[in-house]
Amino acid sequence: MAGLQVPEVAPSAAPRTARFGEGGRSGSPSRRGARGGAARARREAPGTSGSAARRARRDRADAAETIDPGVPPTDDGPSGAAAAETPRRGWGPKQIDPDADPLVAAREICLRLLTDRARTRHELAQALRQRGVPDEAAESVLSRFDEVGLIDDAAFAGQYVRSRHTYRGLSRRAIAMELRRKGVDDEVAGEALEEVDPESEEQRARELVDRKLRTVPADTPEQRTKAANRLVGMLARRGYGGGIAYRVVREALAAHGAEIDELGEG
């Protein structure tokens, strides 16, 4: 339109917010750039997660020197498992760098895994094997970890039994199978499983059934029959035998008006 004057935008005015799908405008930083700058600032600022991560790496290196002072840390480039491992094509764990000291690599891998949670010697040996650590280096590091108490299958088994029985409601048989898969010696596992006697096992089964019954309809014979099948299946998946499963379920459903012959024979 003739005579229409377009006012000039002052240099200090805020740029227009880009619509979805538009790139950054000339003269204004993109959101990605702004986020990248903020992330760099956080990494460089003292006391942030970046510096905390660096301190954690130094702490692990100090712990590693204490565990095996005969293997000096490397000074060239990044230290630890990140430097000792290289990406592997496709799926699977990273492989150690062929040029890395296998003792250093094995030690750092074990320390990192143990920081996550307690593990058995078998689990650590399996992890080292999957990452290409030579057997001799793996055995040396694992034996040293055994000596200083960082690997303790007996303590692991005791803690595992308490956790799986108390919080997951698993039976002795189910826990024993899991410990065997984790490489715990049968004798060591048996000592840990002594904490779970038949009385406590049955009590835990009753607690599981009572809790499940609060959410399962059991007012009519048809509902109780369906509930019985579900409850017995639940206990079976946790390793309980048919005898204890049927007995606990029948007694629990009897409190809901079920007749003994209504649920069939266990």
From TrEMBL:
One of its GO terms (cellular component) is cytoplasm. Coiled coil: none annotated. It holds the Pfam family RecX_HTH1. The keyword Cytoplasm applies. GO terms for biological process: regulation of DNA repair. Gene3D superfamilies: Winged helix-like DNA-binding domain superfamily/Winged helix DNA-binding domain. Its main location: cytoplasm. Residues 152-193 form the RecX second three-helical domain. HAMAP family: RecX. Belongs to the RecX family. This is Regulatory protein RecX. It comes from Pseudonocardia petroleophila.
